[in-house]
Protein backbone atom coordinates (compact mmCIF):
# COMPACT_ATOMS: atom_id res chain seq x y z
CA UNK A 1 0.00 0.00 0.00
CA UNK A 2 1.34 3.37 -1.00
CA UNK A 3 1.73 5.94 1.77
CA UNK A 4 -0.78 8.75 1.54
CA UNK A 5 0.52 11.68 -0.45
CA UNK A 6 0.62 14.68 1.85
CA UNK A 7 1.24 17.30 -0.83
CA UNK A 8 -0.98 17.27 -3.91
CA UNK A 9 -0.41 19.37 -7.01
CA UNK A 10 -3.10 20.81 -9.25
CA UNK A 11 -3.14 22.75 -12.50
CA UNK A 12 -5.40 25.72 -13.17
CA UNK A 13 -9.10 24.81 -13.31
CA UNK A 14 -8.69 21.40 -11.65
CA UNK A 15 -11.55 20.63 -9.25
CA UNK A 16 -10.31 19.72 -5.76
CA UNK A 17 -13.78 18.78 -4.51
CA UNK A 18 -17.42 19.55 -5.24
CA UNK A 19 -20.14 20.83 -2.95
CA UNK A 20 -22.00 17.89 -1.41
CA UNK A 21 -19.06 15.46 -1.76
CA UNK A 22 -18.03 13.36 1.21
CA UNK A 23 -15.07 15.05 2.87
CA UNK A 24 -12.45 13.19 4.86
CA UNK A 25 -9.59 15.67 4.72
CA UNK A 26 -8.80 19.35 4.91
CA UNK A 27 -6.17 21.30 3.01
CA UNK A 28 -3.66 24.08 3.52
CA UNK A 29 -2.57 26.06 0.46
CA UNK A 30 1.21 25.66 0.09
CA UNK A 31 1.53 27.53 -3.21
CA UNK A 32 -0.76 28.92 -5.87
CA UNK A 33 -4.39 29.92 -5.33
CA UNK A 34 -7.67 28.12 -4.71
CA UNK A 35 -11.15 29.41 -5.59
CA UNK A 36 -14.03 28.46 -3.31
CA UNK A 37 -17.42 28.67 -5.03
CA UNK A 38 -21.07 27.62 -4.86
CA UNK A 39 -23.36 26.57 -7.69
CA UNK A 40 -26.78 28.11 -7.22
CA UNK A 41 -29.52 28.19 -9.87
CA UNK A 42 -26.97 26.82 -12.36
CA UNK A 43 -24.82 29.89 -11.72
CA UNK A 44 -21.43 29.96 -10.09
CA UNK A 45 -20.91 32.23 -7.09
CA UNK A 46 -17.31 32.84 -6.09
CA UNK A 47 -17.02 32.94 -2.30
CA UNK A 48 -13.32 33.58 -1.98
CA UNK A 49 -9.80 33.10 -3.26
CA UNK A 50 -7.35 31.42 -0.90
CA UNK A 51 -3.63 32.12 -0.88
CA UNK A 52 -0.64 30.25 0.58
CA UNK A 53 -1.12 29.66 4.30
CA UNK A 54 -4.92 29.62 4.06
CA UNK A 55 -6.79 26.46 5.04
CA UNK A 56 -10.04 25.05 3.71
CA UNK A 57 -12.15 21.91 3.83
CA UNK A 58 -12.16 21.81 7.63
CA UNK A 59 -15.96 22.16 7.83
CA UNK A 60 -16.43 18.60 6.53
CA UNK A 61 -14.11 17.21 9.23
CA UNK A 62 -15.77 19.10 12.07
CA UNK A 63 -19.36 19.05 10.82
CA UNK A 64 -21.56 16.76 8.74
CA UNK A 65 -18.79 15.24 6.64
CA UNK A 66 -20.19 16.84 3.48
CA UNK A 67 -18.49 19.61 1.53
CA UNK A 68 -20.32 22.91 1.96
CA UNK A 69 -18.82 24.46 -1.19
CA UNK A 70 -16.69 23.53 -4.22
CA UNK A 71 -12.96 24.19 -4.56
CA UNK A 72 -10.71 24.39 -7.60
CA UNK A 73 -7.15 25.41 -8.38
CA UNK A 74 -7.06 28.99 -9.66
CA UNK A 75 -3.58 28.80 -11.19
CA UNK A 76 -1.02 26.27 -12.41
CA UNK A 77 1.29 24.61 -9.91
CA UNK A 78 -1.12 24.97 -7.01
CA UNK A 79 0.18 22.74 -4.20
CA UNK A 80 -1.97 21.70 -1.25
CA UNK A 81 -0.99 20.05 2.01
CA UNK A 82 -3.57 17.37 2.69
CA UNK A 83 -4.60 16.62 6.29
CA UNK A 84 -6.74 13.50 6.72
CA UNK A 85 -9.01 12.84 9.71
CA UNK A 86 -6.38 10.93 11.70
CA UNK A 87 -3.76 13.63 11.15
CA UNK A 88 -6.35 16.33 11.91
CA UNK A 89 -7.28 14.71 15.26
CA UNK A 90 -3.58 14.30 16.11
CA UNK A 91 -2.76 17.93 15.24
CA UNK A 92 -5.76 19.30 17.16
CA UNK A 93 -4.83 17.26 20.24
CA UNK A 94 -1.07 17.93 20.08
CA UNK A 95 -0.90 21.46 18.65
CA UNK A 96 -3.15 24.03 20.36
CA UNK A 97 -2.01 26.67 17.84
CA UNK A 98 -3.31 24.50 14.97
CA UNK A 99 -6.64 23.97 16.74
CA UNK A 100 -6.90 27.71 17.33
CA UNK A 101 -6.21 28.54 13.67
CA UNK A 102 -8.94 26.09 12.57
CA UNK A 103 -11.40 27.69 15.03
CA UNK A 104 -10.44 31.19 13.82
CA UNK A 105 -10.92 30.20 10.17
CA UNK A 106 -14.34 28.73 10.92
CA UNK A 107 -15.39 31.76 12.95
CA UNK A 108 -14.42 34.09 10.09
CA UNK A 109 -16.40 32.00 7.59
CA UNK A 110 -19.47 31.96 9.84
CA UNK A 111 -19.25 35.70 10.36
CA UNK A 112 -19.02 36.36 6.60
CA UNK A 113 -21.83 33.85 5.94
CA UNK A 114 -24.11 35.56 8.50
CA UNK A 115 -23.43 39.03 7.04
CA UNK A 116 -24.44 37.79 3.58
CA UNK A 117 -27.90 36.70 4.74
Number of strands: 8
What's the Cα radius of gyration?
A: 14 Å
Main sheet: strands, sense, barrel:
4 strands, antiparallel
Termini, distance in Å? 46 Å
How would you describe the overall organization of this protein?
There is one protein chain. The protein is α+β, with helices and mostly antiparallel strands and 117 residues long. It is 30% helix and 36% strand. It has three helices and eight strands, in the order ββββββαββαα. The strands form two sheets. It has a four-stranded antiparallel β-sheet. Strands 2-7-4-5 form a four-stranded antiparallel β-sheet, with no helix packed on it. The longest helix has 20 residues, at 96-115. The protein is globular and about 40 Å long.
Q: What distinguishing features does this structure have?
A:
single chain; about 120 residues; alpha+beta; 4-stranded antiparallel β-sheet; 8 strands; globular
List the helices and strands and how they pair.
Layout: E1 7-10, E2 15-17, E3 25-31, E4 34-40, E5 43-50, E6 55-56, H1 58-62, E7 70-73, E8 78-84, H2 85-94, H3 96-115
Antiparallel strand pairs: 1-8, 2-7, 3-6, 3-8, 4-5, 4-7
Would you kindly provide a brief summary of this structure?
This protein is of the alpha+beta class.
Amino acid sequence: MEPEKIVRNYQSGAIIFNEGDDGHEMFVVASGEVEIFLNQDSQEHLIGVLKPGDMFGEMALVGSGLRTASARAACDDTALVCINEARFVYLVSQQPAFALSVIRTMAQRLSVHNHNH
